[in-house]
Q: What sequence folds into this?
């Protein structure tokens, strides 16, 4: 079955540090890939997405590139801020089929200290 | 505008109560979802509606009863819940398109802020 594996953390960084959160996937078919962010006490917000190989999603300084050859979608940010502290979920969805399911990774808690 | 709204924000109920959670979107999306999220876990899919029809029920206990009165609204009726049902309940929507008699699904799901439910 489809699955997503991401580093579970927690990840603790100082402000302005470089962030990488690893995400790899297993899927039948051609998945779309997503990063969602959940701030404390809130719902999930779509951070970025990519729908085909070599696509790069980007938003708010975060980037992730869809790598089909390594089945990866790692999240990066060059300089994190305290306000980036949140839980980050990597997810996949199979395009075009009747399956509506998002398959999530377990989530990575990021804490950024001033 | 990619906003999904949910009410109430917080809900405390006893095991014999009946309550409802509400979700609304005005993006013209024709697929709507209920998820349950326990602390420190990813969301778990409960129900999917497509064009106001129940499309997926992930073997959810009958004490949870979904309803989709129109294309913008989604309710979750709660009755005789257990303390282990305490969780964050999230609603989401995505754009399905009717194309030549078939439903073509698009992937991106947009989530609401959730209802924090506590069952005493």
A:
């Amino acid at each position: 079955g489809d699955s997503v594996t991401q580093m579970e953390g927690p990840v603790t960084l100082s402000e302005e540090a470089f962030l990488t959160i690893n995400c790899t996937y297993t899927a039948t078919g051609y998945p779309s890939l997503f990063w969602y962010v959940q701030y404390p006490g809130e719902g999930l917000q779509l951070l970025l997405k990519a729908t085909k190989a070599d696509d790069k999603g980007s938003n708010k300084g975060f980037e992730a590139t869809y790598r089909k050859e390594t089945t990866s979608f790692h999240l990066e940010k060059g300089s994190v801020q305290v306000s980036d502290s949140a839980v980050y979920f990597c997810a996949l969805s199979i395009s075009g089929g009747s399956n509506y399911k998002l398959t999530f990774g377990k989530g990575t808690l990021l804490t950024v200290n001033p | 505008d990619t906003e999904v709204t949910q009410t109430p924000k917080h809900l405390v109920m006893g095991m014999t109560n009946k309550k409802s959670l509400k979700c609304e979107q005005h993006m013209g999306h024709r697929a709507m979802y209920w998820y349950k999220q326990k602390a420190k876990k990813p969301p778990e899919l409960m129900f999917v509606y497509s064009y106001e029809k129940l499309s997926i029920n992930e073997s959810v206990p009958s004490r949870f009863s979904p309803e989709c009165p129109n294309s913008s609204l989604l309710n979750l009726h709660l009755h005789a819940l257990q303390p282990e049902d305490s969780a964050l309940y999230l609603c989401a929507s995505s754009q399905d398109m009717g194309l030549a008699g078939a439903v073509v699904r698009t992937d991106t799901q947009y989530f609401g802020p959730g209802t924090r439910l506590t069952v005493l």
Notes: The longest strand of chain B covers residues 18-25. DSSP finds no helices and 13 strands in chain B. Residues 40 and 109 of chain B are 20 Å apart (CA to CA). The mean pLDDT of chain B is 91.
